[in-house]
User: Which sequence fits this backbone?
């Protein structure tokens, strides 16, 4: 089922176009990395604040609210620049364990963000004990491992 | 320059790194993750200067509170970058994107120092305000564009077949 879906993606005219057009893949890959930098900064500034580091003079919920948009829109940019690569290299991705780990951790990261992390970051400060630290630490861990697995797709698959 | 690269290329430690199966993936992965720490934070500093975001954060807070982390990322980035280069100097010697990346980093560095020793001196006057002087905003735009270009040329180094025609005509790699 899943395999035939990936075979279907690989067979799309768009995938063929991506592979034939010399500059398509490199441009998309560069854009994915630029989007990654935007995403990383938005996530890190808040996570560091959750850990009690970084911009401690600014209220946490104010920082978190402001950077929420940046995090969401850079994730959209990551998706928009990631999806074409999945299409054009669908079979490579299908057979790469790192790809599946990356996708699973992304799902975990998104769920974690929208259920727990945002709530903790938007909450009144000083009411949650050590939890903000735990949340900041987990968030950094999640997105770092997404990046590591992502890079390993290309290097080891 | 070429003989320096060739000399490194022949060093036993360079050969050992080059022949190790794990060294390249490990170094490149750490290079990318540390880039996130460095470039991610710098990008939001630049955007604070330009006035895109974090407008309520006093400008001077960012250098004091975030730069130590950004510099840590940069340090790791520099070390892994240097190791990557050390392990395959002749792969990068003729690579247009490698030299472009080094030049862009140099210009980004000059922009940073210039901003720091000229424009930033007056920060007390615009620290809290929303009215950032034009020079500071320009420095932010220049920095944002240059670091993005460093990321792009960094990724393009893998495409040795996609270098500009005039560069290929120089035959530097041959
Ligand atoms: C749903 C959204 C995403 C999709 C569909 C996606 C897809 C992809 C694909 C297909 C690749 C190429 C892998 C290869 O074959 O070499 C890639 C590379 C990469 N992705 Fe993503 N990605 C997404 C989100 C993310 C996120 C959230 C992160 C980090 C937090 C991330 C970090 C990376 C990194 C570091 C690379 C390696 C870049 C390189 O050097 O080429 N991606 N992505
Ligand atoms: C002295 C400093 C640096 C050196 C010597 C260096 C060197 C390298 C080398 C040798 C590669 C491997 C290219 C390849 O084999 O494909 C690389 C990749 C890369 N570098 Fe650097 N680098 C440095 C600093 C930086 C900085 C400051 C940034 C970003 C702000 C950066 C961003 C990148 C990116 C995005 C890649 C591609 C990673 C990938 O393929 O996923 N580098 N660098």
Assistant:
């Amino acid at each position: 089922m899943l395999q035939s879906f990936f075979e279907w993606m690989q067979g799309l005219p768009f995938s063929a176009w991506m592979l034939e057009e010399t500059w398509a893949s490199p441009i998309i890959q560069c854009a994915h990395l630029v989007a990654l930098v935007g995403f990383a900064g938005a996530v890190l500034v808040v996570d560091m604040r959750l850990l009690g580091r970084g911009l401690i003079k600014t209220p946490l919920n104010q920082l978190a609210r402001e950077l929420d948009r940046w995090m969401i829109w850079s994730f959209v940019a990551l998706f928009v620049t990631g999806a074409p690569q999945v299409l054009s290299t669908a079979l490579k991705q299908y057979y790469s364990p790192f790809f599946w780990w990356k996708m699973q951790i992304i799902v975990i990261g998104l769920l974690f963000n929208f259920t727990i992390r945002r709530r903790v970051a938007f909450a009144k400060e000083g009411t949650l004990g050590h939890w903000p630290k735990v949340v900041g630490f987990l968030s950094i861990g999640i997105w770092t491992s997404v990046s590591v697995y992502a890079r390993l797709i290309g290097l080891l698959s | 320059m070429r003989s320096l690269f060739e000399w490194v290329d022949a060093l036993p430690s360079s050969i050992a790194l080059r022949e190790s199966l794990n060294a390249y993936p490990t170094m490149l992965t750490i290079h990318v993750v540390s880039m996130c720490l460095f470039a991610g934070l710098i990008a939001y500093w630049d955007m604070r200067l330009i006035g895109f975001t974090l407008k309520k954060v006093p400008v001077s807070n960012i250098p004091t509170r975030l730069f130590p982390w950004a510099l840590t990322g940069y340090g790791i980035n520099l070390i892994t970058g240097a190791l990557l280069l050390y392990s395959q100097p002749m792969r990068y010697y003729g690579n247009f994107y490698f030299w472009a990346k080094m030049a862009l980093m140099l210009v980004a560095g000059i922009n940073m120092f210039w901003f720091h020793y000229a424009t930033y001196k007056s920060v007390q006057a615009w620290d809290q305000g929303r009215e950032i002087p034009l020079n500071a905003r320009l420095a932010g735009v220049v920095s944002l564009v240059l670091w993005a270009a460093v990321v792009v040329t960094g990724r393009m180094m893998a495409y040795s077949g996609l270098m500009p025609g005039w560069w290929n005509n120089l035959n530097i790699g041959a």
Notes: Chain A touches chain B at residues 22-23, 26, 29-30, 33-34, 36-45, 48, 53-58, 62-63, 66-67, 70, 144, 147-148, 151-152, 155-156 (CB under 8 Å). Chain A is about 85% helix and 0% strand. Residues A 33, 151; B 28, 31-32, 35, 39, 77-78, 81-82, 84-85, 92, 105, 147, 150-151, 154-155, 157-158 surround protoporphyrin IX containing FE (ligand 2) (CB under 6 Å).
